[in-house]
Specification:
- It is built from 2 helices and no strands.
- Helices cover 94% and strands 0% of the residues.
- The N and C termini lie far apart (157 Å).
- The longest helix is centred in the middle third of the chain and has 122 residues, at 3-124.
- By secondary structure, the protein is mostly helical.
- It has a domain at 3-94.
- The radius of gyration is 52 Å and the shape is rod-shaped.
- InterPro entries: UPF0478.
- Residues 114-136 are annotated as: Disordered.
- Residues 125-136 have a biased composition (Basic residues).
């Protein structure tokens, strides 16, 4: 064997060793890709029921939102009616009610002032009132 043949034999052995060392990670990568493929298939199979349930839930939510819209519209109508009733009450009874309250306040003030004047008057002229027959 010549030196060139020995070198070619060593190079061929190194190449076989290199191929074996690279084959191990490639085999592991192939297994990983197989597992990923299986996981994706399983996930794809399980998504159909999930999407069906999500569609059902969204249908129920939309129905409830339609109910809430109806309730909100009714509430808005009631609010408008209450506002109109308040305006009507203010227009019809508000003025006379304010006048009656002002009148009763004035009468109350006048009565209190009269009582005070009477009490002050009795205090100054208490003897005179009792001499005339005991009137107060």
């Amino acid at each position: 064997m010549s030196a060139g043949q020995v070198a070619a034999l060593i190079a061929a052995g190194a190449f076989v060793l290199l191929v074996l060392l690279l084959a191990i990670p490639l085999i592991k990568l192939g297994r990983t890709l197989d597992e990923a493929t299986i996981a994706i298939r399983k996930a794809h199979m399980n998504t159909d029921p999930l999407f069906d349930e999500a569609n059902t839930a969204l249908t129920h939510v939309n129905a409830q939102l339609e109910r809430v819209d109806g309730i909100a519209a009714n509430t808005q109508a009631v609010t408008g009616n209450v506002s109109a009733l308040t305006s009507l009450f203010t227009a019809t009874l508000g003025g006379p009610l304010v006048k009656a309250a002002a009148f009763s306040y004035g009468v109350n003030k006048a009565l209190k002032a009269r009582r005070r004047a009477k009490q002050d008057g009795e205090g100054k002229h208490a003897r005179r009132g009792k001499r005339r027959g005991g009137r107060k």
